[in-house]
Amino acid sequence: MATAPCAQSVRAEPGPVTTFDLLVTDLHSARGQLIVCLWRDKAGFPGCEKSRTALRRVVPVTAAAMHIAFPLPAPGRYAVTVVHDEDGDGKTRHNFIGMPLEGVGISNNPGGMPGYDKSLAPLSPGANLTVRMKYLLGG
Prior knowledge:
With about 140 residues, the chain is mostly beta strands. Helix content is about 5%, strand content about 35%.
């Protein structure tokens, strides 16, 4: 299992940056990158590309399961979204009805259309969270 650091640090206040451990599983290839977003509010959820408030990090994919030390601004309840951007273009590809053509995952691994409230998970420094990737159209 690969461990990937995030490229940037985020500080909520002076002092050491705190992180939580995000385990992303069921990646069907080691191509491309993961686009990981941490959501404190539901404005724009789950579309990370246009969000002004979600904390976004891009991490190269190196294995079928990856540990990511993700910056945590402060303890609280957050939602996490992950896109397996296999072509590395920085965007989520969709079909003509809006279904994602690339792998997607969300905290708490809810079924159906992801809702912000169902996706909230308590996070604190050192916490562990697992997100299982789903490839809705077999991508």
